[in-house]
Amino acid sequence: MLSKEEVLRIAKLARIELGEADVEKFQKNLSTVLEYVEALKSVDTSGLEEVSQVTGLINVQREDRAILAQNREEILGQAPEIKDGYFKVKAIL
């Protein structure tokens, strides 16, 4: 089982504040997860092929490619506002 110090260190790394009751709860919960992972490590997976996608779905997005405009004026003509030959946008900071 994870020690109180290990749980507090994990919480600090995750920037989570834990109360005393939470530390005890996570000691049990995280230990259970780690025990399960250890059990999974003992499973013999030799002879199995790797699988990265199990639903059979494929990417239905179009190919990302640039569309070249005829000239700068044509591009700037599509903007709602222009200033000094550039797109005018609201300040973000």
Secondary structure blueprint with pairings:
Blueprint: H1 4-13, H2 20-41, H3 72-76, E1 82-83, E2 86-87
Protein model, in words:
The chain is mainly alpha-helical and 93 residues long. It is built from 3 helices and 2 strands, in the order H-H-H-E-E. It has a two-stranded antiparallel sheet. Strand 1 and strand 2 form a beta hairpin. The longest helix has 22 residues, at 20-41. The radius of gyration is 27 Å and the shape is elongated. The two termini are 48 Å apart. The relative contact order is 0.08.
Q: Note the main sheet.
A: 2 strands, antiparallel
CATH class of the domain at 4-41: Mainly Alpha
CA-based gyration radius: 27 Å
What fold name goes in the CATH topology slot of the domain at 4-41?
Histone, subunit A
Helix content: 25-40%
Please tell me the CATH architecture of the domain at 4-41 by its name: Orthogonal Bundle
Q: For the record, give the distance between the C-alpha atoms at the N and C termini, rounded to a whole number.
A: 48 Å
| Number of helical elements | 3
Q: Uncertain runs with pLDDT below 50, 5 residues or more?
A: none
Mean model confidence by pLDDT: 89
Secondary structure category: mainly alpha
Shape summary: elongated
Measured by DSSP, the beta-strand proportion falls in under 5%
How are the strands of the biggest sheet laid out side by side?
Answer: 1-2
Order of helices and strands: HHHEE
- Using DSSP, what is the number of strands? 2
Please tag this protein with its features.
mainly alpha, elongated, single chain, Histone, subunit A, 40% helix
